[in-house]
Task: structure prediction
Amino acid sequence: MIKVVAKNFVKPEKTDEAVLLLKKLVEETVKEKGCIKYELFVDVKDYSILTIIEEWESQEDLNNHMASEHFKRIVPLLGKLMVKTGEINVYEKI
Amino acid sequence: MIKVVAKNFVKPEKTDEAVLLLKKLVEETVKEKGCIKYELFVDVKDYSILTIIEEWESQEDLNNHMASEHFKRIVPLLGKLMVKTGEINVYEKI
Result:
């Protein structure tokens, strides 16, 4: 099992727009093969930090996700709403 | 439900020692009231990034965790093994 934490730093005036896009990304991604969890969270102290916490069956499934039509369509749109590059960490449980 | 991501940046030569302490913290914490999940992960590309992903029933349970004997004992020991201050985000699902 692979865990991913993708932390996004959104321009404060663009958080509503970013939430809509991220929810669309969630809606499409949860249908993908190998997707165990793909959930959107907001930092309780800073609403401009929007983080997706993911669980995938394998690295191959994660690779397929990042090559998917919806990922390649939505992620560049999200990029325009960000203050800076996000942090993405891929983890394994120990 | 409250989600917490606690990301630690460990001195590379201290990762084994940090893993032992973090596993002890996990072992004690999963027994706590309101703890749904408390799991330790390592970044697959950088073994000095050790992250705990947590799920708590309520903010009160999280507060009690941070006031617990084992938290107050182990966290300062961990602090000595870090390159820099960790990142802790408390999230709610949206």
User: Anything to note?
Assistant: The interface with chain A takes residues 2-3, 5, 7, 19, 39-45, 49, 51, 53, 89-94 of chain B (CB under 8 Å).
